[in-house]
Amino acid sequence: MTRDIKKARMTLFLALLAFLAACALWTRILSRQAMAALPPPGAFQAVPGGNIHFVESGPPDAPTLVLIHGLAGNLHHFTYAMLPLLADRFHVIAPDRPGSGYSTRNTDRAAHLETQAAMLWDFLDARGVTRPILVGHSLGGAVALAMALARPQGARALALLSPATQPQSATPDVFRPLQLRLPLLRRCLAHTLVVPATRLTRTRMLREIFAPDPVPPDFHTKGGGLLAFRPETFISASADLMETRADVGALTARYATDLHTPGGVLFAAGDAILSPAHHGTPMAQFGLPMQLLPGHGHMIPLTAPRDCVAFITRVADTTPP
Fold first, then answer.
1. What is the enclosing helix (H) or strand (E) of 94?
2. CA Rg, the chain, in Å?
3. Structure confidence at residue 1 as a pLDDT band (50, 70, 90)
4. In 10 A of CB 33, how many CB atoms?
């Protein structure tokens, strides 16, 4: 009996190894396919702690907008529709946040908001950009706020789209798989189970994130969705989620005394990921009044680009250079 048990355990162990090996192989195939379909569309700028991938458009002597995407996203969220609409009037820079898309960071600890803010300021300094209008969506809104707090006179204005501005006790259901604190575990899962699981559950997850809006049919390509099949996307998003939780609380403690950058907040009334009442309404007391956009959900850069562009233009028109 003992020999049979040992044999059964060994068979189970070998089967598990074979399963993980198959998942790792599938992950490599899906990742390579994604990178072939969506290679880096922009240029790279080395900064302390990593390398920033970005696209740039519009007149170089026009006011500069810096478009900062959210959790598990990439610059395609803005190039999908907003960047072409903005580039007629503005000098527009859309970076992949440090660690996201094709940008890199040297350590998961660099996911902290103050570190991401510092890396993006270093990036803008290297590009010779001064007094930009910071446009942040979702977690990108928290990064934009961290940048404004880091350099009170550095940004001309904040135009925040469905931003994360306050501590939040509960993680939205769709992002709970990202709740992994150990970097090694993140990497092991990212290179084996996560990408195949994402491939199988992607449709449901996107419906939750975009609701009540439909998912654009070309989101996987034009919107950068295929990059979710790169293990690096999961690793970065998990680190972002875990490392920035306490950081947002530290930001809110400084709004009253240190946030002097004007601007505003645009929130979709139907946002199922971040609550407008929780994340948008409180910002009015700090000089960032909220405008509600009816009929849309969290992903307004893709689903309501003209409304976002009109909002950003109003912020630009009402703030001094």
1. strand 91-95
2. 20
3. low
4. 12
